[in-house]
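Hi L.,

You mentioned the student needs an example of a multi-chain input paired with its predicted structure. This one should do, with 652 residues in total across all chains.
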Amino acid sequence: MSTTNQAGRLAAVKPQAAFKQVEIGRIRNVGSSVATISINKSVIRNNQLQLAQIGTILKIVTSKSIVVAMVGSLKIGSEDEEGMSDGCLAQLNIMGEITTNETTRETKFFRGVRSFPVLGEAVYNMSPAELTLIFNREGEACIEVGRLQQDNSIIAKVRVDDLLSKHFAIIGSTGSGKSCTVALVLQAILNENPMGHVVLFDPHNEYSRSFGNRAEAIDQDSLDLPLWIFDFVETCELLCSEIEDQAREETEILHDVLLKAKRLYDRSVQNGEISSQVKLDDVEAELHRSTHITLDSPVPYRIRDVAKLIDHDMGKLENSSNLAPYKRLKRRIASLIADPRYQFVFKNQASPRPIEEIVGRIFRLPVNGKPISCLDFSGIPSEALNIVVSVVSRLAFELATWSERKLPILLVCEEAHRYIPRDKSLGFNSTRKIISRIAKEGRKYGVSLAIVSQRPSELEPSTLSQCSTIFSMRLSNELDQNFVRAAVPDGAAELLSFLPSLGTAETMVFGESVNLPMRVILNNLPAEYRPHSSSAKFTDLWKRDVATPQLMEKVFERWRARSLNPGGQSAPSVPVTPTVQDTRAALRNRVARAPAAPPHGSAMRSGSEQPSELALQVRQRLQAKAAAAAQERPQAASAVKSMLNSAFHKNI
Ligand SMILES: Nc1ncnc2c1ncn2[C@@H]1O[C@H](COP(=O)(O)OP(=O)(O)OP(=O)(O)O)[C@@H](O)[C@H]1O
Ligand SMILES: [Mg+2]
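Structure written out for the whole complex:
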């Protein structure tokens, strides 16, 4: 079929002057979604095979339309009886068609085909004008992410509303460019939508410089996620034992105690008195009356009231053999309070900050010029990660629900396989539950997910399958490819075969926010905005001795404090060489901030309860004093010894 009689019908698609149309081959085989073509010998002879490389979009001009197809695979044709190879074969995935409306004369690209190519029809390369028609949709809010690999004059655009409203995923092996793509995509979205509400879960503190002053950085020290904002299940997950039978007993106790603690606080605030002046009996009497406060209401309560109420309930027990769960709860609460890594849960006990402030900061309400908050989880213990992600995600869901979709929120889950694992035995139940719920129902409420992972096979499967746009970067593991294949929409899975060969910063984009799957060379992200995840420079660092005493002092200080930022100031984006004074100041700070010692005999002693360096020095001085005094006056020596013991127990 000649292309000339189509020229009038498809007049709007004019090839540009520099473009040279080449007949690539002829249809040999055609099915409902794939066609096989034999590539013309002239193409092979003229070294033009790159016009038909994998991922390239070609056209077949039929009597009614231009059928658009993508090269999925290439192979050498079968040999004849003399052993001569029959050229080259390409398998095409039929994607859609360009047609001209007879009445309006408007030429447009549509997914799916009504007019299939027939055997023997010619296949051509696409002109830039045709590619533009396919990939650019006028009048829709789009962001530019890069250029088409096939033709770098064509800008690769992604439709923002489709991207956000139905979740998206960025998948690829380590170092393929996922985090840079996250930064690139979010920057582009926020350039156009400066009043957005984005929360980025950042487990490695990679993004601290990626959004300049448009990001609110929240780290372990500045995070305020009080226990009272947790719902009952989340509270139990933090406070109760992991042993099922024990957890059941503890949950029952907490059920009663938390409700009382909430009402106690509520009454104390209503009366303008302090909580201890409100009678516990009055609260108990009220328990059965209906009030607006339920177990899950985000109403403040004080942890010291919880401890008091547990004591109170313990006192009422007739049988002392039932004390164990009460004691376990008290021990667990005490050890969590004493653990500096959990300060984000127990800070501001004396005067809880209002929910508006807590939620407002995380979800940027009001935006105040910072539409994105980066939650740096690097200092948060991995056992607390579940709680933080599930509480923040649930808050997003509640906010969107109670605002009746007026506050759409995007949650970006970096390293999602860490806290949304497929393997249930790894825990993270609350997180898995709320993220799956958002994946399934979030669209209706305006909560969107961006799932970023290098191990799709380890990810909770329903989450990935709910993502309707997938940026698939280089992915070498076959098992991972199979999971992406299952999640990729509309039969484009064939195109995944070349994922292992994609370059860094190169991606295939599939799904609802693009007209066709496209192979894209992503825009270059300026060095100053790149997430700092660069690999260690072995050959550079192994040529000189970098383990100076100052560096090692800083390393162990951070290790002991379980924080990259033991002094409490914002984390430096570039590691600085610490001075001894810096380290001393950090030590003093830490000592000043040190929580009260856990009760004597507490079962759980965290690493941070070990004596600090300053404590060891004071102990050494006291020991020297005790030794000197012992020689002079034995009585004074025993006084110093008791001081020493008390200093040890308080861990100074
Ligand atoms: N769009 C881009 N612009 C500039 N450089 C890029 C881009 N994409 C990737 N790179 C380069 O590739 C490196 C690795 O990228 P990135 O950190 O995004 O990989 P990753 O897939 O997130 O790796 P990991 O799984 O280990 O977190 C970057 O440090 C950067 O040098
Ligand atoms: Mg990364």
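You could point out the following to them. The CA atoms of residues 482 and 601 lie 52 Å apart. The two ends are 89 Å apart (CA to CA).

Best wishes,
N.
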